[in-house]
Amino acid sequence: MKDQTFTPPSLPLAVIALALATFMQVLDSTIANVALPTIAGNLGVSSEQSTWVITSFAVCNAIALPLTGWFARRIGQLRLFILSVALFTLSSFLCGIATSMPELIAFRALQGFFAGPMFPMCQTLLLGIFPSVKRGTALALISMVTVVAPIVGPITGGWITDNYSWPWIFFINIPIGIFCCLTVWQQLKNRVDITAKLPVDFIGIALLVVGVGLLQVVLDLGNDADWFEATHIIVMTCIAVVCLISFVIWELTEEHPIVNLYLFKDRNYAVGTIALVLSYSAFFAINLILPQWLQIYMGYTSIWAGLASAPMGVLPLLLTPFVGKYAHKSDMRLLASISFLVIGLSCFMRAEFNTFVDFATVAQVQMFMGIGIAFMFMPLTTIFLSNLNGQEIADASGLTTFLRVLGGSFASSLTTWIWTRRADFHHATLTEHVSQYNPASVDYFQRMGGETLANFETVDGIIKVQSYMNSTIDYFYLLGWLFLALIVIVWFARGPFIKSASSGAAASAGH
Are 29 and 191 in contact (CB under 8 A)? Predict the structure, then answer.
């Protein structure tokens, strides 16, 4: 049977426009981070208040993602993508002209909500314009964008803020968004897009908004509030848990659910999603802890910390086209296992770092990890989509992306919490050796000129740096073992994972 995949007038142009839209959306989730101090100063608010610029985006993005499948069924996949990009571009403009922090937070919330469907719809549309036997190429392209954009974001944000002004981190989206809307519509307007007039699951939406919204706020603000020592964190957590449990029960019994949770009945979807969420969360943790450690305790500027981290994107850029072209000849579980092994080894390499590690060593380990990254996203995405067709792909893309984003939020909160707690433990342990009963300690103070307050502060500073070094080592060992454990999980999936043209995989193209 001939593959019925829709082919746009210019496949390269359609791919470029779809990839650019996704790149813009992923980039915007990190580009504002480094500009927060400047934004806070210009708008006259505290640094704590400025973090809502990030939180508002994350909360609304997390709410919109699981709704993507329902929106796609209601208005169509192409219309949803175009509408999301257009409104994302408009909200970017509004963010750039905001004159107060409440305005900026409100516009960032809109930007986050409209950004939600963009990645899942890009993934769905890409799969629809590539022949089913070349599905790996489309997924590899998305994987490359997913890896490169978070690396470029902080570096670009820092450069724009330093050389121009913070509104331009939002204004740069405008020409990109206009180009993507016009090009994707022109290329895909003749694509068949089936819609359905479905009843609105108001109860499901309400439970989802409250549960996911409060959970995201708890994850974003929990560390600063010392977690469950704060009453408002306890209250929000309890409400979120009750709402999310009620949401799952409701959706499993509702005739027209807002989120298709029955996708998890498919073995490959469940295994692939679990492996993807856990591996992305661990990958996110690496990208969070390494730059922080380099900047705070190794004296790197934000730009140099970004440059030290950036080499992990070099090899994925070079290898991804080959992975997409030839991966279908290999077992996806094997490729994912290679990825987890390489990234795990890179974590163990970082666990050998000390406070004298140089820039070149950090960059080389990052580049080595890039081999693993090149083989991570595409095989896992292929696994969880392997048994799905048509509208199921949009449902699955939205749900898995939501869980991946939520996993990143958990990773962010847990990383900061574990890193700080382990540093406190090591600080207490090391401080025990600074006493008049320790000859080495006494000798050190004598060589410094005596036990003065200034010398004690100097020693405490040295101990703090070493404590965070030891905590960083502990965390990278933990991440290394987690990646090795994922090798076991991924082999619970059942092949084959690449469908032939006659298998009916092309159904996704026509719906």
Answer: no
Q: What architecture is the 11-198+256-422+470-510 domain classified under in CATH?
A: Up-down Bundle (1.20)
- HEC string of 8-19? CCCHHHHHHHHH
CB atoms within 10 A of CB 241: 14
Taking only the tens place, the pLDDT of each residue in 219-253 is 777 777 777 788 888 999 999 999 999 989 998 88
Coil, helix or strand at residue 202: helix
- Closest C-alpha among 274, 226, 224, 229 to residue 55: 224
Residue listed under structure tokens 């000849």? 329
Position 199: which residue type? P
Domain ranges of the chain: 11-198+256-422+470-510, 200-255
Q: Give the model confidence (pLDDT) of 362-410 as tens digits.
A: 999 999 998 998 888 888 888 888 888 777 887 888 888 888 888 887 7
CA 315/CA 327 separation, integer angstroms: 16
* 497 three-class SS: coil
Q: Give yes or no for a contact between 379 and 319, defined as CB atoms under 8 angstroms apart.
A: no
List Cα–Cα distances, 233 to 194, 226, 230, 244, 420, in angstroms: 43, 9, 5, 16, 19
